[in-house]
Amino acid sequence: MLFFILAAIGVVWTIYFIIEASWSSIELLISYLKPFFLPFEEQSLTKRFGSWAAVTGSTDGVGREYARELARRGLNIVLISRNLDKLRNVAAEIEKESSVKTKIIVADFSKGAEVYRHIEDELKDIPLGILVNNVGIQYDYPARLCELPASKAWELINVNVGAVTLLSRLVLAGMAARGRGALVNVCSGAELQPLPLMAVYAATKVYVRSLTLAIREEYAAHGIHVQHVSPLFIATKMNAFSPRLERGGLLVPDARTYARHAVATLGRVHDTTGYWLHGLQYFFIKVAPEWLRIKIGIYMNEDFRKEHFESVRLKTH
C-alpha cells in the first residue's frame, strides 16, 4: 500500500513539475492561438489599455523595436532614454512610419533618485495606458565580483532595480484610478539561477521577477495587466562582449524579430519569454536542477569571457 501511495505522489509531482517547467511555452502558444479560437474577445491595445504607451531604454535594441511595434498598433509613444539626439531620431522615425504622436523624455537612470521627479512632471498630463520597463544594463564582460568596479555595481542596481521599481510606482496609481492599463517588465532568463561571472546582473533580474509577480497580485482587482517578459539571448549591443551573440542566429533573434513576437503576447498572457524558441529553451533550462544550471552558467560565461578578451586582442593588433 505504501508503495502505491509513494508512486502516486511521484506521478503527481512529475506532472506538476513538467507543467510548471513548460508553462512559459504553453502561455506563448496560447497567445498565438487565442485570436483564431476566440476572435470576438480580441481587442486592440488602444481600446483595452489606452492610447499612450511609454518605453524606457527606447533608443536602441529591444526598447526601440518595442516602441516601433506598439506604434504600428496605433499607440502614441513616450520615449524615455538618456541620449537626446537618439531620442529625436527614433521619435521622427516612429512618426513617419506610423503617423502617431510621440513625446521624448531625457532620463539617465544610472543617476538614481534624482531623475524621477522630472519624469513624473513630464508624464503628469498623459493618461498612460502601457508602460514597458525595458531599460537595463549588462556587464561589460563576464567578471568576478571583485573585478566589477563599484561604480558599475551601483549602475546595475540603479538601472535594473531602481528604474522598474520607481517607474512602476509612478504609473500604477493613475492606471488603477482609470481601471485599466498594462505594465510590462522586461526581465531575463538570467533570473532562472544564480549566474557566476554575472552575479549582480542575474540578482537584479531575480528582483524584477519577484517585484512583478507581487504587484500583479496587489493590482489584480484594478484592471491592470502586469506582464513578466523573460527573454534569453537577443542580438543587441547589450551582448557586445560576444561577437557570436551580436551576430545572432536561430536561437538568438534580432531585436525587431523578438519585439514583434513579444508585443503579440501583450494582454494575452502574464508570463512569457516573448519568443517561441526562447520558450523551448526556457523549458529545458528549468528541467535541469539548479546546481547543474549554475555549473553550465559559469562554463558559458568563462567561454564568453575568453571570447571577449580574444576579440579585444585582435582589435589591438
Descriptors:
317 residues; alpha/beta; seven-stranded parallel β-sheet; 56% helix; 11% strand
Layout of secondary structure:
Layout: H1 2-37, H2 45-49, E1 52-56, H3 61-72, E2 76-81, H4 84-98, E3 102-106, H5 116-123, E4 128-133, H6 150-178, E5 181-186, H7 199-218, E6 224-229, H8 243-247, H9 255-264, E7 271-272, H10 276-287, H11 290-315
Parallel strand pairs: 1-2, 1-4, 2-3, 4-5, 5-6, 6-7
Helix pairs in contact: 1-10, 3-4, 3-9, 6-7
Average of per-residue pLDDT values: 91
Strand segment tally: 7
The largest sheet is:
7 strands, parallel
Summed up, the helix count is 11
Helical amount: 55-70%
Dominant shape? globular
- What oligomerization state is this entry in? single chain
Strand order of the largest sheet: 3-2-1-4-5-6-7
Strand fraction band? Answer: 5-15%
Radius of gyration: 20 Å
Computed structural class:
alpha/beta
- Cα distance spanning the termini: 72 Å
Unreliable stretches (pLDDT < 50, length at least 5) are none
- Summarize the helix and strand pattern as letters: HHEHEHEHEHEHEHHEHH
